[in-house]
Amino acid sequence: MSGAEFVPLSLPPLVIGVLAAVACALPGNFLVLRKQALIGDAISHVVLPGIVVAFLVTGAVSAWPMMIGAALAALVAVGLIEAIRRLGRIEPGAAMGVVFTAMFAGGVLLLEQSDTSSVHLDVEHALYGNLESLIWLDATGWQSLWDPVALAGLPDELLRMAITLLVVGLFTWVLWRPLKISTFDAGFAEAVGVPTGAVGLGLVVVSAIAAVAAFDAVGSIIVIAMFICPPAAARMMTNSLERQVVWSVVFAVLSAVLGYVFAGYGPLWFGAANAVSAAGMIATVLGVLLGLAAVFGPCRTRSGAPVA
Amino acid sequence: MFWQAVTLQLGYNATLVMLGAACLGVAAGVTGTFLFLRKRALVSDAISHATLPGVGLAFMLMVALGGDGRNLIGLLLGSAVSAGIGLLCVNWLTRRTRLAEDAAIGAVLSVFFGFGIVLLTVIQTMSSGRQAGLEGFLLGSTAGMLWSEAMVIALGGAVTLALVVALRRPMTLVAFDPEYAAATGRNVGQIDLAIMGLAMAVTVIGLKIVGLILIVAMLIIPPVTARFWTDRTDTMVVISGAAGGLAAYLGAAWSAVVPAMPTGPIIVLVSFAGFVASLLLAPNRGVLAAVLRHRRFQARVHLRQGLLALAQGQPIYERYTSRILQRAGLVSADGVATEAGRARAAKALLDEKRWEIVRADQAMEGAAALYDGMRALETVLTVDQIAEVDAKLAPPEALA
């Protein structure tokens, strides 16, 4: 594989995939442990209407309005779920199901009704992502990595995803202790003065940021795989939170790289000419990793559970 | 135009779609009720996303065998198989590993969906043109639906419905009290599996109309809507079925008359509108009813406090209180108690004194627990008991 081909066509999507997977896996660790995994599901569905509304308001596909729109939609969804749960005394799972399906339907309807065919925003893109198309045309080879002119032509998504990962990483690092305590023993956390409510909300907000940033690269539904699978697989490997987070990052990176390589080059090995969906393949690899961890992982059963 | 659609005068194809959608809606609403009661509404999310790889594999298999890849029955069989595998994966992950059910659901739905997307991109490159219509399974499409396809959907809906009716007793029992159901010799695991199997059937049947991403809404929203109107399971099943059927029917009609209106999303949004209306307006559990109840309670508290103030000759500063007293004709506009007002005030004071005695008396503990500062004593104690209380009232002070 020559650098002249690899660097412009494959390096950016590969790096974006890795960044997205790690940015989602970090908050995912806490979501899975807190039994809030489906918050990731809800967020990634409601991102769509937020992005469509932002597009309709600004009339252009630009990053910041869309991220703001998506973040607002996520907050609206969290508020609605809470309101329905309290006002209607409905159990949280059902309240969540009502809200995210209705909001997703609204997003699809808006998308179909408005004329967005001229721009790069359609339902399939929203579901599949467009990782493959995030190419770096200004690059000519490995040496372009040191060429400021060429670097300016990097896809915007790369920078956005890098910043997102930085934010998510900082959040996890700075709030490590409060996050850990409030995840494992909310009562004790309250007692020692950790604002558990604020920590929980912060986790949701950071997850929303990661979901929004990863959305246009990998599509709304595969984001869910990135949130849940690496931490879930890591959970089977160890009993320590620190090691679980490290494992989840390893799994995230591994799946992004393997998934991208299989999607791009796998069909060639079988004699087919065209690549398959990279985002879909990353999710598939994540599923295989999770399956392997669930069958062979050293800590796969609940401690104390009977070994059947 | 919309009215024409609703009254089935919009031509053969639209009629077909609307009736098929209504069948599906009823089946989904009824089945969803048991999922909701069993608190497993979101398992349907995993089931529905897990149908995608089955659709893709079935298409590839049928093409490989030299047939038409778009045969609906073949595609639905494929989707049922992969949804079943997805369901087993959720069950296995939940039981055999330390993962909680929500993580298992999320992992299965996204991984199966991702794999399905991979298969769809393979199909796109495999046979250009012939895969047209497979995308319709994502969000549902009813344009150009065949009579045979509508029949499959309507029949499937009817069979599912019949099975739900046949299994409603054990399913209700398990939904409410699994331990009791197990104690009476029922196999809870199998009944749970039956509920899931029915949900899977509805999902598969609904793929063509609503699409796999939104079919879960048809299983979740109608039961939640129905829950506002009743506390009885059988009534809830009926209301949920009716809500689901009506939403699907109206949504399909709407999408038939408005261009570029995809069927799935509009059905979901009609259903959601019904949910919001129920949340606000339902008697007893609705928000409006709760607000009215609160207002009535507030008015009674203020009335009572106002009467006690009148009885003790204290001035009433609270504006709301005096407005209520005036409206009831107990106080004149200048704040002086009327004849009726004085009578009611004296009665309120007497009641309060009687309550004081009741609450101090160990023997009347049961009645004392009901004290809320508003209740008339006559509704709690018998005439004899009240006489007994009155006997303990402080004798009127002798006039000096």
TrEMBL record, chain A:
<feature type="transmembrane region" description="Helical">
    <location>
        <begin position="158"/>
        <end position="176"/>
    </location>
</feature>
<feature type="transmembrane region" description="Helical">
    <location>
        <begin position="217"/>
        <end position="233"/>
    </location>
</feature>
<comment type="similarity">
    <text>Belongs to the ABC-3 integral membrane protein family.</text>
</comment>
<keyword id="KW-1133">Transmembrane helix</keyword>
<dbReference type="GO" id="GO:0010043">
    <property type="term" value="P:response to zinc ion"/>
</dbReference>
<dbReference type="Pfam" id="PF00950">
    <property type="entry name" value="ABC-3"/>
</dbReference>
<keyword id="KW-0812">Transmembrane</keyword>
<feature type="transmembrane region" description="Helical">
    <location>
        <begin position="38"/>
        <end position="57"/>
    </location>
</feature>
<feature type="transmembrane region" description="Helical">
    <location>
        <begin position="275"/>
        <end position="296"/>
    </location>
</feature>
<feature type="transmembrane region" description="Helical">
    <location>
        <begin position="63"/>
        <end position="81"/>
    </location>
</feature>
<keyword id="KW-0813">Transport</keyword>
<keyword id="KW-1003">Cell membrane</keyword>
<feature type="transmembrane region" description="Helical">
    <location>
        <begin position="93"/>
        <end position="111"/>
    </location>
</feature>
<dbReference type="InterPro" id="IPR037294">
    <property type="entry name" value="ABC_BtuC-like"/>
</dbReference>
<feature type="transmembrane region" description="Helical">
    <location>
        <begin position="245"/>
        <end position="263"/>
    </location>
</feature>
<keyword id="KW-0472">Membrane</keyword>
<feature type="transmembrane region" description="Helical">
    <location>
        <begin position="188"/>
        <end position="211"/>
    </location>
</feature>
<dbReference type="InterPro" id="IPR001626">
    <property type="entry name" value="ABC_TroCD"/>
</dbReference>
<feature type="transmembrane region" description="Helical">
    <location>
        <begin position="6"/>
        <end position="26"/>
    </location>
</feature>
<protein>
    <submittedName>
        <fullName>Metal ABC transporter permease</fullName>
    </submittedName>
</protein>
<dbReference type="GO" id="GO:0043190">
    <property type="term" value="C:ATP-binding cassette (ABC) transporter complex"/>
</dbReference>
<dbReference type="GO" id="GO:0055085">
    <property type="term" value="P:transmembrane transport"/>
</dbReference>
UniProtKB/TrEMBL annotation, chain B:
<feature type="transmembrane region" description="Helical">
    <location>
        <begin position="105"/>
        <end position="126"/>
    </location>
</feature>
<keyword id="KW-1003">Cell membrane</keyword>
<feature type="transmembrane region" description="Helical">
    <location>
        <begin position="212"/>
        <end position="229"/>
    </location>
</feature>
<dbReference type="GO" id="GO:0010043">
    <property type="term" value="P:response to zinc ion"/>
</dbReference>
<keyword id="KW-0472">Membrane</keyword>
<dbReference type="GO" id="GO:0043190">
    <property type="term" value="C:ATP-binding cassette (ABC) transporter complex"/>
</dbReference>
<feature type="transmembrane region" description="Helical">
    <location>
        <begin position="12"/>
        <end position="37"/>
    </location>
</feature>
<dbReference type="GO" id="GO:0071281">
    <property type="term" value="P:cellular response to iron ion"/>
</dbReference>
<feature type="transmembrane region" description="Helical">
    <location>
        <begin position="266"/>
        <end position="292"/>
    </location>
</feature>
<protein>
    <submittedName>
        <fullName>Metal ABC transporter permease</fullName>
    </submittedName>
</protein>
<feature type="transmembrane region" description="Helical">
    <location>
        <begin position="49"/>
        <end position="66"/>
    </location>
</feature>
<dbReference type="GO" id="GO:0055085">
    <property type="term" value="P:transmembrane transport"/>
</dbReference>
<feature type="transmembrane region" description="Helical">
    <location>
        <begin position="236"/>
        <end position="254"/>
    </location>
</feature>
<feature type="transmembrane region" description="Helical">
    <location>
        <begin position="72"/>
        <end position="93"/>
    </location>
</feature>
<dbReference type="InterPro" id="IPR037294">
    <property type="entry name" value="ABC_BtuC-like"/>
</dbReference>
<dbReference type="Pfam" id="PF00950">
    <property type="entry name" value="ABC-3"/>
</dbReference>
<dbReference type="InterPro" id="IPR001626">
    <property type="entry name" value="ABC_TroCD"/>
</dbReference>
<keyword id="KW-0813">Transport</keyword>
<comment type="similarity">
    <text>Belongs to the ABC-3 integral membrane protein family.</text>
</comment>
<keyword id="KW-0812">Transmembrane</keyword>
<keyword id="KW-1133">Transmembrane helix</keyword>
<feature type="transmembrane region" description="Helical">
    <location>
        <begin position="146"/>
        <end position="167"/>
    </location>
</feature>
